[in-house]
Amino acid sequence: MRRTIMVVATALLTAGVTVLSAAPALAHGYISSPPSRQALCAQGRVANCGDIIYEPQSVEGPKGQRNCHGGVARFAQLSDESKNWPATSVGTTVNFNWILTARHATSTWEYYIGNTRVALFNDGGRQPGATVQHTVNLSGFGGRQKLLAIWNIADTVNAFYACVDLQIGGGGPGPTPTPTPTVTPTRTPTPTPTVTAPGGTWAAGTYYAVGAQVTYGGLRYRCLQAHTALTGWEPPNVPALWQRI
């Protein structure tokens, strides 16, 4: 009887370890600038994006994918080429800025145009910061291009995926001067960004432009990077996005 109990317990423990080792990484992130397809969807600049508008940071799938949705069916809209994806005009050297809502040990970051890997950054298993920037040379390409960026997690079989549509050599500057996304205004611009949260209070689901000011917990904060706020991104929790004033 004791031997039977021991065998069952061992089997359950083995199964538990297997499940844990196959679970998705406890990390999330996406490219905010130049805006990736999921960033454009979250900002409402592209319509009918499905679930991705609520979680642009969650395009996580098995390593080795070569598509914009990471093989995740509910994010398949990201690979729909019939959508009118805006292309950001850039020079031949581009800074790609990631926002990481949870940080995880990283093996490599890869950048592809078509089947050509244009850049590789090796983190050697280190944990990244809340924001990551990579400078990529695209001098071998011109015109409209779709770039696929891949964040390979070090200790799981998964990676995060982001596609960025670019107009290379379209009159844009070379290196992006700051990690601030270039967002096409959807209303008449004003000297000071308009805060859409009621009474200037921070609220999840609200789009904030650079320089927008909000109140949270009785304190004032200024937006450092344009983004759509998500639960968990409260100003005190994401210093990469908000600065106390």
Automatic annotation (TrEMBL):
InterPro entries: CBM5/12, CBM_sf_5/12, Cellulose/chitin-bd_N, GlcNAc_Chitin_IntDeg, Ig_E-set. Residues 172-193 are annotated as: Disordered. Residues 199-245 form the Chitin-binding type-3 domain. Keywords: Hydrolase, Monooxygenase, Oxidoreductase, Signal. This is Lytic polysaccharide monooxygenase. It comes from Sphaerisporangium aureirubrum. The keyword NADP does not apply. Residues 1-27 form the signal peptide. Residues 174-192 have a biased composition (Pro residues). SMART domains: ChtBD3 (SM00495). It comes from the Bacteria. GO terms for molecular function: monooxygenase activity.
